[in-house]
Amino acid sequence: MLEIRPNCECCDADLPPGSPDAMICTFECTFCRTCVDVRLHGVCPN
């Protein structure tokens, strides 16, 4: 099972369990939707 962390790894925003704003990559990195769209442009830095 994939592990979603409670905070965005980019901006440290709180991501409660089941949040529709929580995004996870195949490396189990957790980001908020804003960072994925604006800062990372859909690409995990790892």
TrEMBL record:
Q: Which organism does this sequence originate in? A: Amycolatopsis rhizosphaerae
| Top-rank taxon | Bacteria
| Entry-linked InterPro entries | DUF1272
Instruction: Output this protein's name.
Output: DUF1272 domain-containing protein
Entry's Pfam families?
DUF1272 (PF06906)
